[in-house]
Design brief:
Layout: E1 3-7, H1 12-27, E2 31-36, H2 41-45, E3 50-53, H3 58-61, H4 65-71, H5 77-86, H6 90-101, E4 106-109, H7 115-123, E5 127-131, H8 152-158, H9 160-177, H10 179-187, E6 207-209, E7 226-228, H11 246-258, E8 264-267, H12 279-290, E9 294-297, H13 302-308, E10 313-316, H14 321-324, E11 330-333, H15 337-346, E12 350-352, H16 359-369, E13 372-374, H17 382-394, H18 396-410, H19 414-426
Parallel strand pairs: 1-2, 1-4, 2-3, 4-5, 5-6, 6-7, 8-9, 8-11, 9-10, 11-12, 12-13
Helix pairs in contact: 1-19, 4-5, 6-7, 8-9, 12-17
Length: 427
């Protein structure tokens, strides 16, 4: 039996693959501990998995409306996340991860866990880096879509040398921002190391890329030792929303699904939902204008929106994607990697409305697969959404492509590939 500490950071889309791996490690006889935000304690413990708190706590951050607005700014959200949350908390994160990982046999770190690699190096324990979305690799052969400059991918695709210029400029800026992390490493007697947002996040022992090759192909300039596992799925609510009666709402949802034609599904995942704006109201109006039924997953906005909704619209805080999405006529979502993975698994056509961060890049990958149309966040109105959904449903190629991708994903087993690789490192 090995003791493995997993250190994710972020929304359900970030947490869930790590939790799935932890559950499987426990099933195979190991001791898994998920070290992450305090807000997820009950959810993790309910699965029989060990928990250790790591700062910053997303629960505390979620109460700061102005900070959330900055983090989900369409263009500058990634900068605010780095400079206001991740970098200032790097020392606290290191201290917490080091305490949890002391004596561990292996540490798994998330791309946004700047304290994790420092803890692994200081404690001299093996570690594997984990990547959830292809954008993190910043490949010149598959240039990412940056939220601050959506057009720049086309320039890079036509002139790959231009990406090297962009990357160099970006690295210079990130190096300036990362001064507190370098100071942390120096105080611990560690060398400066590579930039933790770029090369420094990748372990020399290897990286688990928890997505499908059918979503993004490996590229020549990825770091050495990358294992593309396939998507790793988990979508149970657990103890995440204490007041939420899952059994009652699941029964009501099944009754709704059985009562008519396949509905549209509208969702912003578990994080962008905190800055939803008019997305849900416009979505309800779009469904009504199309004369279609809809399921709207609103998070904490469910009760006030339910007052406005007709009987053709089912509004709920949460529903497991794996149980809902296969019944959808089409899925309208924000392009988060967790939502994207489950939507591809369901094999339904999509309208992607990316909010920020990696979501524009994920949406572009969906567009290239032929399974989705893309509508910018600032263009999302009931009228435009209805037009895009009409095109989506009126063109059979989207359904065909989505079905073909679903069949390919069904041949993969991301959780087994990931845990097999972990056990190979342990042995």
């Amino acid at each position: 039996m090995a003791r493995v500490v997993l250190n994710p950071f972020g929304s359900f889309g970030d947490l869930h693959p790590f939790l799935a791996i932890a559950i499987e490690l426990n099933r195979r006889g190991h001791e898994a501990i998920v070290a992450t935000s305090e807000i997820y304690r009950d959810k993790i413990v309910a699965e029989g998995v060990g928990f250790a708190p790591v700062r910053p706590d997303l629960g505390a951050l979620a109460t700061d409306a102005e900070l959330l607005r900055r983090i989900w700014d369409p263009k500058h959200g990634p900068e605010h996340l780095l400079r206001e949350i991740l970098i200032p908390n790097a020392r606290a994160s290191y201290e917490d991860v080091a305490a949890a990982a002391n004596g561990a046999d292996l540490l798994l770190t998330h791309s946004a866990s700047y304290g994790g690699p420092v803890a692994a190096q200081k404690l001299r324990i093996p570690w594997l880096s984990v990547v959830l979305q292809p954008m993190v690799f910043f490949s010149a052969y598959d240039p990412p879509v940056f939220p601050a400059a959506l057009w720049i991918r086309h320039v890079h695709a036509l002139r790959p040398w231009a990406f090297q210029i962009t990357r160099t400029l970006m690295k210079l800026e990130l190096d300036r921002w990362m001064k507190p992390v370098r100071e942390l490493r120096a105080s611990l007697g560690l060398p400066p190391g590579a930039n933790p947002a770029l090369e420094g996040q990748f372990s020399p022992r290897g990286t688990l890329a928890l997505f499908s090759r059918h979503f993004a192909q490996p590229q020549p300039d990825w770091p050495e030792g990358v294992t593309v596992t396939g998507f790793v799925y988990y979508d149970q609510l657990g103890a995440a929303i204490p007041h939420f009666s899952r059994t009652q709402r699941e029964t009501e949802l099944r009754q709704f699904l059985d009562a008519g034609d396949p509905p549209l599904v509208f969702t912003l995942g578990s994080s962008a939902v905190m800055q939803a704006g008019n997305f849900f109201r416009e979505s309800i109006r779009a469904a009504q204008s199309l004369g279609m039924r809809a399921v709207v997953l609103t998070g904490p906005l469910a009760k006030p929106l339910a007052i406005l909704a007709p009987t053709s619209i089912f509004i709920t805080e949460y529903a497991p994607y794996s149980e809902l999405l296969p019944h959808a006529a089409a899925i309208v979502h924000q392009g988060g990697i967790g939502t994207t993975a489950q939507s591809l698994r369901a094999g339904r056509p999509m309208l992607a409305v990316p909010w920020s961060h990696d979501q524009p890049d994920n949406a572009e990958n969906l567009r290239r697969l032929g399974v989705a149309r893309v509508l910018r966040r600032n263009q999302y109105t009931a009228v435009r959404a209805a037009k895009e959904i009409t095109k989506l449903l009126g063109d059979a190629s989207y359904r065909t492509s989505a079905s073909q991708v679903r069949e390919k994903l069904a041949q993969e087993n991301g959780i087994d590939v990931a845990v097999d690789r972990i056990e190979a490192i342990l042995s």
